[in-house]
Amino acid sequence: MALPGLVCANGHANSPERLACRLCAAPLSGPTRTVARPPLGAVAVSTGEGFVLDRTAVIGRRPRASRVSGSDVPQLITVPSPQQDISRSHLELRLEGWHVVALDLGTTNGTTLHREGYEPLRLRPREGVVLHDGDLLDLGDEVHLTYGEKS
Ligand SMILES: [Zn+2]
């Protein structure tokens, strides 16, 4: 996907809203230009696995893609849920422009967002929340995901 961005002296593409490169902290200035969207970070799963956010991800105990729009074929991430607290398709992490949006897929047991400095927030079903670096998403069954914007 191509979108307007700012490129640092080391060639990293960034959101035009940033003042410093998310990867190397070099200052960003000058006109925006059209860039290919880089991966918007990565997710560490509490099971020890992880994945890169180069496209939408659907996470669950038996995830399925509900819809496939154009070239953005979601990656399906299976997590263990011995108590079946986690729904089959539990959470979607969607790339929207330069943002990563977390969406609880109307699950039975819900998803809780833990953000530094805030009270834990239970996501409303199908209502997207833009993730920040370091956010932790609790899916239940002792499985959580940690988002990092540096991939
Ligand atoms: Zn950079």
UniProtKB/TrEMBL annotation:
Recorded superkingdom: Bacteria
SUPFAM superfamilies to which the protein is assigned, alphabetical: SMAD/FHA domain
Gene3D superfamilies named among the record's database cross-references: 2.60.200.20
UniProt-listed PROSITE patterns: FHA_DOMAIN (PS50006)
Keyword Phosphoprotein included in the entry's annotation: yes
Domain FHA: 57-118
Assigned keywords, A-Z: Phosphoprotein
InterPro entries named among the record's database cross-references: FHA_dom, SMAD_FHA_dom_sf
One Pfam short name: FHA
Name recorded for this polypeptide: FHA domain-containing protein
